[in-house]
Amino acid sequence: MTGRRIPARIAELTARRVPFVHVTVVRSQPPSSAKTGDEAIVLPGGDIEGFVGGQCTIESVRRTALGVIRDGEGVLLRVLPGGQERFPDAPGAVTVVNPCLSGGAMELFLRPELPAPTLHVAGATPIADAVTDMAEMLGFAVTRGTDDLPPDSIAGVISTHGDEELLVRAALDAHIPFIALVASPKRGTELVTAMGLNDSERAAIHTPAGLWIGARTAPEIALSIMTEIVKAIRLDGLVGAETAGAVRAPDVQVPADATDPVCGMSVTIRADTPHLTAGGTDYWFCSAGCRDTYAKAAS
Name one Pfam family in it (predicted). Predict the structure, then answer.
């Protein structure tokens, strides 16, 4: 994939709500093959589209990117040739000393691009409208309606003048982990008690919705609701946040790595990683060339 196609690919993945890491070369020292401004995309499975360097750099980029997409935090990756003085470590930066014989130092910025968390709002009230506006301002993808609640929503806000019990039940059945029910303390407690919920279902329902800030107007109530939802995601480890793409990508596992016995490079063990079994021991290599060199020496 050429650099010209990267923006179109980013737009496609974003529209499909596919998490990925956008990699950009921010500094390159000859004889590195990549140039400043070169770009690539790393998908959750470790596939790389685009060009940010040769095989020596790619393995470091792949492994670091999988950690970035899992953790949801951007990283400045510094790739240095073996023997070169290390850059001083700093928060948000990862330094890798690369033993590849081609040499050349590089800096690459890896930025996670994760789907916006989805918030479903049920109801046609001023509070529902205010929650929608504020959630969109905060970067949530908002859906509205009282039918077909999206099962991948991180939270649901119910603000109606009726059918609350049916909507709460629908949200629970959709496995929405945080359900904000707009109701008075008395009304909310009576409704939840009457439903005969189990402990896990009861824990998902937050009523009265929102943190207590003395809110009176619809925008103020929306502020209290969104504050509670953001707190649940950022500070309380909201169950289901990962699956909704709110903080990090789902099921991203950084694979094991191995050291190439020929060049000493650290390589990610994937199905397509060059591999050789010799003397009952498995070896993985950065390239077919290193594998063939080892096989020849071992024969």
Answer: XdhC_C
Could you report the per-residue pLDDT of 268-295, keeping only the tens digit for each?
A: 787 778 888 887 888 888 788 888 888 8
Omega within 30 of 0 (cis) for the link into 31: yes
Q: Are the C-beta atoms of 229 and 205 separated by less than 8 Å?
A: no
Q: Which of 237, 234, 209, 240 is nearest to 222 (CA)?
A: 209
- CA 292, CA 205: separation in Å to the nearest integer? 60
- Measured distance CA(249)–CA(17) in Å, rounded: 10
Q: What is the pTM of this model?
A: 0.62
* DSSP classification of residue 30: T
Position 115 confidence tier, pLDDT thresholds 50, 70, 90 = confident
Give alpha helix (H) positions in the chain: 6-15, 55-71, 126-137, 164-173, 185-195, 199-204, 218-234, 288-298
| Class of the CATH domain delimited by 118-234 | alpha beta
Residue ranges covered by each domain of the chain:
3-114, 118-234, 255-299
Residue 270 and residue 258 in contact, taking contact as beta carbons nearer than 8 Å: no
C-alpha distances (whole Å) from 187 to each of 122, 162, 178, 228, 275 are: 18, 12, 19, 20, 64
3-class secondary structure, 163: coil
Environment class of residue 250 by beta-carbon count within 10 Å: exposed (0-12), middle (13-18) or buried (19+)?
Answer: middle
Q: What is the pLDDT of residues 117-162, one digit of tens each?
A: 889 999 889 999 999 999 999 989 898 987 767 777 888 899 887 7
State whether the Cα torsion 4-68-239-186 is positive or negative: negative
Helix (H) or strand (E) segment spanning residue 25: strand 20-28
Which residues fall within 8 angstroms of residue 291, CB to CB, at 6 or more apart? 262, 274, 275, 276, 283, 285
